[in-house]
Design a protein that fits this description.
The protein is an alpha/beta fold and 297 residues long. The protein folds into two domains: 142 residues, NAD(P)-binding Rossmann-like Domain (Rossmann fold); 139 residues, Dihydrodipicolinate Reductase, domain 2, CATH 3.30.360.10. The protein is 36% helix and 25% strand. The chain is built from nine helices and twelve strands. The strands form two sheets. A seven-stranded parallel β-sheet has the order 3-2-1-4-5-7-6, sandwiched between helices. The chain has a five-stranded mixed β-sheet with strand order 9-8-10-12-11. The longest helix has 22 residues. The chain is globular and about 60 Å long.
Length: 297
């Protein structure tokens, strides 16, 4: 058990997601950032991180494997094509791997829905940013109402979508659709993503269209508000903008404004997936540290 009362953590990837993850981890009471690993010596983001006193390396996955310690948690913020290889190289370490790529390799995790699955897995997938924004709501509605089909449309500002995310757009759509089916039991699912070039930059938003039976405005609104309250325990900028029911159709639209200290307000897509990933790791830490009398709330 860690002597510091915190779990040792490394972040693999120094793009938009990795850099914000590193900042969020430094604010955690139970996670200790020991390494931020990028791939390029000249990466200005890594240089800025080093100037802030963060421990950095430029060897990618090799830096993590050869770091001289077995990390308790490794966050993979690279891309979907690389995650399976990274997971294989880290398997012997025993670390919990938190996958922020849409690779569909590990167990799908939404912290407010299936926390219990975190501790039983060695590789957990944070789905996608759109998934983290919509799945708690869709799961809540589908548990109470019979839903026949679901369509989800995600819109993110172009400035908040990095190179790796653009490479992974097909995986993003497929992983989001798979996760909706998994968490709701609904087979007829469609996910779409828009990258908006608008100026000023558009705030991250997710629109959900549902077709079902016995939907009522009071019931759906209550379920949506309950799920939103739980999300705001770790993503404070989450807001329900529209919730309407018309006969057998429901429409829910949410926006997520970034509340992090290093993200612009419009980058709620980065904020919500990173906040969910850190919360999942903190749940894992709570379960590991509690037996030693160092539980976290």
């Amino acid at each position: 058990m860690p002597a510091t009362g915190r779990l040792s953590v490394s972040v693999l990837g120094a793009g938009l997601i990795g850099m914000d993850l590193a900042a969020k981890i430094t604010h955690s009471d139970c996670l200790d950032l020991r390494l931020l690993a990028g791939r390029h010596d000249a990466d200005p983001a890594l240089r800025r991180a080093a100037r802030r006193g963060l421990p950095v390396a430029t060897g990618g996955i090799r830096s993590v494997v050869d770091a001289g310690e077995d990390f308790d948690v490794v966050f993979d913020a690279t891309n979907a094509a690389c995650h399976a290889e990274h997971a294989e190289k880290l398997a012997a370490s025993g670390a919990l791997i938190v996958d922020l790529t849409p690779s569909r390799v590990g167990q799908l995790i939404v912290p407010t829905v299936n926390r219990a699955d975190i501790g039983s897995q060695r590789d957990i997938s944070m789905v996608t940013c759109g998934g983290q924004a919509c799945l708690p709501i869709l799961h809540a509605i589908s548990r109470v109402h019979a839903i026949d089909c679901i369509e989800v449309v995600t819109t993110a500002a172009t400035l908040s979508v990095g190179h790796a995310s653009r490479l992974n757009l097909d995986e993003y759509v497929g992983t989001t659709q798979d996760a909706i089916r998994w968490f709701t039991g609904v087979e007829d699912v469609k996910a779409l993503v828009n990258i908006s070039p608008a100026r000023p930059a558009a705030t991250f938003r997710v629109a959900m269209y549902l077709l079902g039976k016995d939907l009522t405005a009071d019931s759906v609104r209550s379920l949506v508000d309950g799920a939103a309250d739980e999300i705001r325990t770790f993503a404070q900028g989450f807001e329900v903008k529209v919730c309407t029911v018309n006969d057998s159709r429901a429409f829910v639209s949410v926006e997520v404004a970034a509340a992090g200290d290093r993200l612009p307000r419009y980058a709620g897509n980065l904020d919500i997936i990173n906040s969910a990933a850190v919360r999942a790791a903190e749940f894992y830490a709570a379960d590991r540290l509690a037996p030693a009398g160092r539980g976290t709330s």
